[in-house]
Structures are given as structure tokens and as C-alpha cells.
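Batch manifest, entry 17 of 40.
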Amino acid sequence: MTPANPTTAATVEVDRRHVWHPFSQMREYASLPPVVIASGRGGWLTDTEGRTYLDGNASIWTNVHGHNDPDLNAALSDQLGRVAHATLLGLAHAPGADLAAELVSLAPCGLDHVFYTDNGSGAVEVALKQSFQFWQLAGRPEKRGVIGMAGGYHGDTFGTMAVGDSGFFHDRFRPWCFAADHFPAPAAGDASASLTALDALLAAKAATTACLILEPSVQGAAGMRLQPPGFVRAVAELCRAHGVHLIMDEVFVGFGRLGPMLVCADEGVTPDFLCLAKGLTGGYLPLAATLVRGEIYDAFLGTYESRRAFFHGHTFTGNPLAAAVALANIRKLRPLIDTGVIAERAAIFGRLLAEAFAGHPHVAGLRQRGLTAALDLAPAGGGEYPVALRAGLQVCLRARAHGLLLRPLGDSLLLVPPLCLDQAELGELVNRTRRAIDDTLPFLV
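Output type: C-alpha cells
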């Protein structure tokens, strides 16, 4: 399809010639009708052809207050007038210091120190390396193993691939990954078998295990797989009992996505490491943070020649622009959570989803927690669609005709709206999704 706008056509030509898009079969991408985003406001994006779309995946799970938010814009503009970047390597700046203090105030007591990176994968890599080095410094170098949970996704760098369990996403790279153990995820509403298996694994391997990593409450990339109440606390108690560090990967679930600011604080659990990204800057700029317990930080202190320091860093670590907008994002989000606005929106979202899809002939499963949901698509007679049919993608392409941007995970639709959507907009998200499904799936063969 050739775009009507010459500017769009020129962008598409250059894009298809030079840009390698993430998680995309580029031959398929180049065959699809192009969408070139030009601007955004609130929960909506507009392309260069003048078409407006509801952002149904919060620009890959990052957007909080909407696009072009005036308060976040002002924070960014103000900082831009001061300094765009200054390294944290041997220097300090106010946005980085103030944001660290704000994050510590949000986190459970004991998480006193913040190490900045650029993305969620980086935040997890830092936690892994700091755990490994801590045990070396503590005279326990044999504690080097990692335990993850089945279905876990923690990023695409080699350390995060090693501790994750993301199937075909990472299978071809397994020969280059270090070994890790995994315990089963909870069954729907029942964590007993999962916790029993974890207890047995820890009993057998705690002496040689450095840390356990967990996406708490919801495993996003696994298809919004939900954990039952009490599961996160039970995992934390097992880790503490067996002397194994707990890394909580809240890259996806933090900053109001499930309701509370942080899942660990809501659960009353203090992990040894807390990894944050995505919603941290409200969807504006890349920034991530790893929060660390004070006693772990203290183990790294010593003379220069002791080589106890943590030798890790990124060029744009703690970028002042990103830190300034993150601070504005958190300060705007706090009252929305404290007054119950986010919880009310999540309740409305859940009710609308149930009304639209409970018993739907082409929706075999519906999972929702907070402002995130998954719809598992299936033929009306049961079974699964052939992979080559690309049923989920076909629904998402049809959704564009209804002014909605979604992205499939296989034949599941993941609905992850910006947190700013009001009741009417949440209704549009659900209704447009339903229309796209009804326009597409009954006619697939």
C-alpha cells in the first residue's frame, strides 16, 4: 500500500531500506500497511496521514499520563534549559540525586541505594552482577547460581536471557547463556505446587545459589499470567529462610500499572534488589534503576586497591533529562494512586472487559489485573489457530481500521492502556478491540 502523503511515503521508503525493527520478521513488516506516527496527545497517537489511534499498549507498556503531557513537558523543558547530560562517573547532579531519594521513599524500608541504567534489561543485569559480587566479597564464591520462574521474561541481554524462560524468544541463544534453575509458576489461583517445588529446589541448592529473580504478581511477556494473593510474600520468605537474595523485577508492574506504586511495598516485602524501568519516566525517555539493600551496598566499600568497587556503568547513566521527567511523573502519579483514581480506572476496565468478552466464542481466556489484560484468541469450536495464519496479528491490523493500536503475543491480545484513560476512553479501547475480533476471527479459515 502506497501512502497518500508524500512525506509519509518518503519516511516509509527510508524506514524499510534501513531500519531493523524489534521483534519483527522484516519481510512480513515490509508487506504490511505502514503507520508512521507524527504526534500524540493523552492516550491518542496521530499518524502522518492524519489518522488518530487509541494507544492500546501504552507504547509498549511505558506511558502513564499520556503523550505530550504538559507537566512532564514542563519538567523536561526546564531541565533542558539547564543541562541535557552530565556523567555520574565522579560527578553528581540534582535530578539524579532527587530522583534517587524519591525512589527510596517509595520502596520498602532498607532499599537505600539506587544504581541507574538505561533499560529494564540493564537494571536486571546490575542486580545479578551485584549479587554475584556480594557473595564473592562475603567469602562465598560458590554461591553463583540463579533461580527463575517458568515463563519468566527479564530482557534480551545474555544475563537476562539466561535467567528467563521465554521459549522461542531466546532458545537459539541458549548455548551462550549460563545455566540457571527454574521452578514452576503457580497454577490458576493455586500456588501450592509452585511453592513446594521452590522449597525443594532451595533446600537442595541454596548453598550454591546467589539469587532468585521474580516478576511479582503478573508475568507480562508470558501472557499476563497472574499469581494468587500471598504468593510473592511466600517466595520472599523462602528466599530469606534459605539465605538466597531476592531480585524483584518490577520493570513492567511498577508505577501504578497494577494499582499500587510498587508491588513489593504493597505486599509488605523487602527484596534485596528491586528493578524498575518502563513507567519510571512516564513513557518519555529511557531510564532504569536498581534499588539495593544497605547491607549489600556496604559490602562493596573499601580502599581502591581492594578492588571491592562495582565496575559497571552506562554512558548515559542517570541522564538529567530522564531523571527530571521521572521525578515529575512520580509526583504527578502519587496522588492518583493515593486517592484511588487508578484503582477506580482498573475496576472500570475489568468490568468492561468482562461485559464484552465473557463467553465470547473467540476468546478462550481473559486475564486482568490493574490496567493490564490478556485475551486468548481461539476458533469458536475450540483448539488453536495455525501459527502461519497469524490470527492475533490479523486482529491487530483490523484494529487499526477502528482507530486502535494493539500488539499481539502470538494469538493473545495484550491490552495495556496508558494509565490516564478515562471511563469513556477505556470503553473505546474495549469496544474497538471487540469490533476488530468480530470483524476478523469468524472469517478465518
